[in-house]
Write a structure and sequence with these properties.
Layout: H1 3-47, H2 54-80, H3 88-113, H4 119-139, H5 144-163, H6 168-217, H7 227-243, E1 248-255, H8 258-265, H9 267-284, E2 290-295, E3 298-304, H10 308-323, E4 335-341, H11 349-365, E5 371-373
Parallel strand pairs: 4-5
Antiparallel strand pairs: 1-3, 1-4, 2-3
Helix pairs in contact: 1-2, 1-3, 1-4, 1-6, 2-3, 3-5, 4-5, 4-6, 5-6, 8-9, 9-10
Length: about 375
Amino acid sequence: MDGLGLRYETEDLIARQVHTDRLHQLFRQSVSAVFGSFLAVLMLCWLCWERFDHTVITWWIALLAASSLLRISMFIAYFRCATSERTPQRWERTYWVTLMLSAGIWGSGALAAIPTDDLLAQALVLLFCVGMSVSAVSCYSAYRYMTVVSISLVLFPCTIWLLFQPSSLQVGMGAAVLVFASFVFSATRSLSDALETAFRLTREIEHAHSVSTRAAQTDELTGLKNRRAFFEHAQQLYGHCKDNHLPLCAVMLDMDHFKHINDTYGHQVGDQVLRQMGAVISRSFRETDVHGRLGGEEFAVLLPDTSIEVAQNIAEELIHSIAGLMSGPVHRISASVGVASMNAEDHDLHSLMNNADKALYRAKARGRNQVAVSE
């Protein structure tokens, strides 16, 4: 993949991660909003109990309770599912539907309950609607349009109704709310952009750290782990197998006559041969295996939960795969391999690697291009 394609792929990955981060932020921030909106209705109805139609507020509370239970069940399902399943594709639409339902019930219920001849009750209803709008900014700020729509559903029914009332005080209250809403809508844009920028910067820093870490642990020529990274991972694997009494085999591989290839055809050809070796080793082993380039033309592999017989067979297949390689003018590439199994006499990882290295030198002494097993 060229540099431009890699850059686009990275940007697309970061964009998807930011989208998912926004969803996580939305769910984390808005759990309390479900309970807050219901409690706000109960408090408003308690304050205006003598001023509201009891039938209307009974229906309002019942419908809001049903929508709140629906939202609570959504939150429970979200937090119980696996992290890999918490994706925008799965949850965004569900969240939108439940939020719009709840906000619509809140706003329409407030309009239905507001008395036409009680200015104090009207002011209290409007005050609670404004309070709900402020809480929406803090709860749904990761999604600007979600914030704007939910505020509109809660705030505008009563506000528009007030604008068409005969009293100048009522019209003034409605106009004041519209001015307030315009400032809130502007603030939601700034807050949403700031959150998205923070999420993006975090993901870009994580990606840069991942790239630098990988670069520090990867052999640039072959793409395998470098010597330091190999032994770090190998030590962890050795300890795991030792503690859990699992078999572990080490494979040491050294290319035959590699100096002759460099001297005869040049280092460019030699580097190409090493790249091909890295590709063969990468596709010949499992994800649980640890493999790397120790230096020059020497490679090593650790095979967990593998018997010495199976490890020998794998090494033989590797020899055949290498024998089929060709690189420009080099028509014959071969390697010698040594295999050793962890036993009770091995005190540490280096003892195991040393046994595999001794087997490797026996393979070379016997004529190269073959596998030798530690005795």
